């Protein structure tokens, strides 16, 4: 699944630079994650880096975008042209 940022986000700016796919950007009110670029860090790290640094734990899986590990790896390969 792609990740999402909930409205509990405090705009602390720590998640954006941690994303290896540049999927996180400032939204109108809170940061947002582009689901087309989010691979949950599959291919880069063992765990989503944004979740690891978020001080308010506001980055859950997006239930609207279920993806398997294989689908996330395929997306990773497309994004990185690996």
Automatic annotation (TrEMBL):
<keyword id="KW-0411">Iron-sulfur</keyword>
<dbReference type="GO" id="GO:0051539">
    <property type="term" value="F:4 iron, 4 sulfur cluster binding"/>
</dbReference>
<keyword id="KW-0479">Metal-binding</keyword>
<feature type="domain" description="4Fe-4S ferredoxin-type">
    <location>
        <begin position="31"/>
        <end position="64"/>
    </location>
</feature>
<dbReference type="InterPro" id="IPR047927">
    <property type="entry name" value="YfhL-like"/>
</dbReference>
<keyword id="KW-0004">4Fe-4S</keyword>
<dbReference type="InterPro" id="IPR050157">
    <property type="entry name" value="PSI_iron-sulfur_center"/>
</dbReference>
<dbReference type="GO" id="GO:0005737">
    <property type="term" value="C:cytoplasm"/>
</dbReference>
<keyword id="KW-0408">Iron</keyword>
<dbReference type="InterPro" id="IPR017900">
    <property type="entry name" value="4Fe4S_Fe_S_CS"/>
</dbReference>
<protein>
    <submittedName>
        <fullName>4Fe-4S dicluster domain-containing protein</fullName>
    </submittedName>
</protein>
<dbReference type="GO" id="GO:0046872">
    <property type="term" value="F:metal ion binding"/>
</dbReference>
<keyword id="KW-0813">Transport</keyword>
<dbReference type="Pfam" id="PF12838">
    <property type="entry name" value="Fer4_7"/>
</dbReference>
<keyword id="KW-0677">Repeat</keyword>
<keyword id="KW-0249">Electron transport</keyword>
<dbReference type="InterPro" id="IPR017896">
    <property type="entry name" value="4Fe4S_Fe-S-bd"/>
</dbReference>
<feature type="domain" description="4Fe-4S ferredoxin-type">
    <location>
        <begin position="1"/>
        <end position="29"/>
    </location>
</feature>
């Amino acid at each position: 699944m792609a990740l999402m940022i909930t409205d509990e986000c405090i705009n602390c700016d720590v998640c954006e630079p941690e994303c290896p796919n540049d999927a996180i950007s400032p939204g109108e009110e809170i940061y947002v994650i582009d689901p087309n670029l989010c691979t949950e860090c599959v291919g880069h790290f063992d765990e989503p880096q944004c979740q690891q640094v978020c001080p308010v734990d506001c980055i859950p899986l997006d239930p609207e975008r279920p993806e398997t590990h294989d689908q996330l790896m395929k997306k990773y390969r497309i994004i990185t042209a690996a």
